[in-house]
Amino acid sequence: MSAVAPSPFTLIALYGVTGVGKTATALHLATTLGCAIISSDSRQCYREMRIGTAQPTPAERAQAPHYFVATHSVTERFSAGQFEVEALALIESLRAAGERFAIVTGGSMLYMDALTRGLDAFPVPDAALRERLSQQLEHEGVSALFEQLRKVDPVTAARIDAQNGARVLRALEVTLQTGTPYSQWLTRPAVPRPFRLVEVGITRPLPELHQRINDRVDAMRAEGLEEEARGLLVYRNLPPLKTVGYQELFAYFDGQLSREEAFEQIKTHTRQYARRQRQWWQRNPSIRWFAPEALSVKEVC
């Protein structure tokens, strides 16, 4: 007797820069297909960062099952490697339960790549090098490490969030340890996956996108982002808080910026991050791009 073949499973990878409208588009597709949404946002998984990471609201999460949203504390370590392992296990459980589709979406480029293509076998960190870079990050700030990264791996420097100390440190660490630019580690052949992968993205004209980003930051401010950041001040040196939206407010709390300057910098840094996201995903010719209103279920089935 021949074994029963596993049921086909399609993973829809929905790409798009921050503020473009991925949440609404993913919800539309998920409710139409009756499937789950897997968040590949490296910050939305933290419970304490609800406002600053634009987590889906309870009402939105009630419309479709969501995974990796508000599942961890900022005091817990969660990496792209862990996400890859846990998301693959989740997909297998969904497939075993008879599900045929799932949507993965989020703004974290490395997390999306981890699930759709697999992470490269990076070397085990060199403890002495990591300690040296960590000390430099603490005493000189992320800008010093970023300048080093820009010199040895300008490709990664152009794509990475220059404000994210943990990411900058890791990219520089791998480059210095191996002698191979971090960017080259991320361009190796994809790892075979046990699902059919459909890659689509949504995009908007830049003026419209920039206005949406500015409006979203204003909405976060009105919702209480400043109070949320103040409550997380004690955790400011943990990796999850080394991110846009919190670092600027911490600088305001330290007296380095005015309140208005802090929120203007959040807008500026978010727009800059969106540009890096766009540059990162431009290297993937498999992504088909649509205006949000033009992306329908027929394009992904």
Helix content: 40-55%
Total DSSP E strands: 6
Number of helices: 13
Taking all Cα atoms into account, the compactness measure Rg is: 19 Å
What would you note in describing this structure?
The chain starts with 9 loop residues before the first strand and ends in an 11-residue tail after the last strand. It is an alpha/beta fold. The protein has a 6-stranded parallel beta sheet, with helices on both faces. The chain contains 13 helices and 6 strands. Helix content is 49%, strand content 9%.
Provide a brief overview of the structure:
The chain is of the alpha/beta class.
List the helices and strands and how they pair.
Layout: E1 10-15, H1 22-33, E2 36-39, H2 58-63, E3 66-67, H3 80-96, E4 101-105, H4 109-116, H5 127-140, H6 142-152, H7 154-159, H8 165-178, H9 182-185, E5 196-202, H10 206-223, H11 225-231, H12 247-253, H13 259-281, E6 288-290
Parallel strand pairs: 1-4, 1-5, 2-3, 2-4, 5-6
Helix pairs in contact: 3-4, 5-6, 5-8, 6-8, 10-13, 12-13
